[in-house]
Write a structure and sequence with these properties.
Helices cover 38% and strands 9% of the residues. It contains six helices and five strands, in the order βαβααβααββα. By secondary structure, it is α/β, with parallel strands linked by helices. The protein has a five-stranded mixed beta sheet with strand order 1-2-3-4-5, sandwiched between helices. It has one domain: 3-Layer(aba) Sandwich (Rossmann fold), CATH 3.40.50.720.
C-alpha cells in the first residue's frame, strides 16, 4: 500500500450458450464476472488508490473494453448490438427469478450479454470519474488495445470462428494485435506520464497510433451511468 494501478480485466464470453449459467451469488455468469465483480473490486480498492509519482502523476483504474460495447464504431454495430435499455433486467437481479437475466430485460443472448457488460465497464468509468476524480486525483479510463483473438476468451465459440476470425482480423480488417502488443498498449495507458487525462476511452488506429475514441450516446449518458451505479451497489451489497 498504496496501490498505484488497478486494471480490471476479468471476463467470460459465452456467445453460443443457449441457456444462462450463474455465479455462486446467483447472477447471470457474464454480468456477474464482467461487470459486478469488476465494480465491487474497484469500489473496495478505491481507498487504497492514492496519487503518486510512480508510475504516473495520478493513480489509475482502467478497464479493457472491446469496441462492440461502443456503438460509435463499425464493430459496435454488428448484431446483436450492446444496449441496456432502461436496466429493468439488472434491477430485477439477473437471476431468472425476478425477470430477465439480461440487463435490458429481454431474452437471453450470450453474445449480447458480453457486449452489454463491456458497455457497463465504460459507463461505470464515467461515473467513477464524476464521483471521485476531483477528490482523489485518480484517473479513470477504459481502453481497446485491439482485436486479441488468440486467447482463451474465445474458447466457447464454434470451431469455424477460430478458423476464420483470426485471418479475417489479420488480413482484412487489420485489427488484430498480438497478446504481447496488447499488453504493451495497456501498460502505455496506465504508465505514460502524458496520459493522465481521466474519463477517456483510449484506442489505437491501424498505424498503431493512440487516440481518444469517441464515446457513443449511451456511454455518454450521465443519468444511465448514475442509475447503473446505484443498482449495482445494491446487487453487490454495498447499499440496502
Amino acid at each position: 500500500m498504496p496501490i498505484d494501478i488497478v486494471v480490471c480485466n476479468a471476463a467470460v464470453y459465452q456467445p453460443t450458450a443457449k441457456e444462462p449459467s450463474y455465479t455462486a451469488d446467483g447472477f447471470e455468469m457474464s454480468v456477474g464476472v464482467n461487470h459486478l465483480g469488476d465494480f465491487l473490486l474497484a469500489r473496495e480498492i478505491l481507498t487504497d488508490l492514492q496519487p503518486s509519482d510512480y508510475p504516473s502523476n495520478a493513480s489509475s483504474l482502467s478497464a479493457p473494453s472491446p469496441v462492440p460495447g461502443n456503438t460509435n464504431t463499425l464493430a459496435g454495430n454488428v448484431s446483436p448490438k450492446a444496449n441496456m435499455g432502461d436496466l429493468r433486467g439488472l434491477a430485477g437481479g439477473l437471476n431468472g427469478a425476478g425477470g430477465s437475466v439480461m440487463i435490458d430485460g429481454r431474452e437471453f443472448d450470450g453474445a449480447k450479454a458480453y457486449k452489454d457488460n463491456k458497455l457497463c465497464n465504460m459507463l461505470t468509468r464515467q461515473e467513477f470519474h464524476r464521483r471521485y476524480h476531483g477528490e482523489t486525483g485518480v484517473t479513470f479510463t477504459s481502453l481497446y488495445p485491439g482485436c486479441i483473438d488468440t486467447t482463451g476468451l474465445f474458447r466457447e465459440h464454434i470451431s469455424m470462428f477460430w478458423l476464420l476470425f483470426v485471418p479475417f482480423q489479420k488480413y482484412i480488417t487489420k485489427g488484430y494485435v498480438s497478446e504481447e502488443e496488447a499488453g504493451k498498449r495497456l501498460a502505455q495507458v496506465v504508465s505514460d506520464l502524458s496520459l493522465t487525462k481521466s474519463r477517456v476511452y483510449w484506442s489505437w488506429n491501424k498505424n498503431s497510433a493512440l487516440f481518444e475514441n469517441q464515446l457513443s450516446e449511451e456511454v455518454s449518458d450521465a443519468e444511465k451511468a448514475k442509475k447503473l451505479w446505484e443498482i449495482s451497489e445494491k446487487l453487490v451489497g454495498l447499499t440496502a
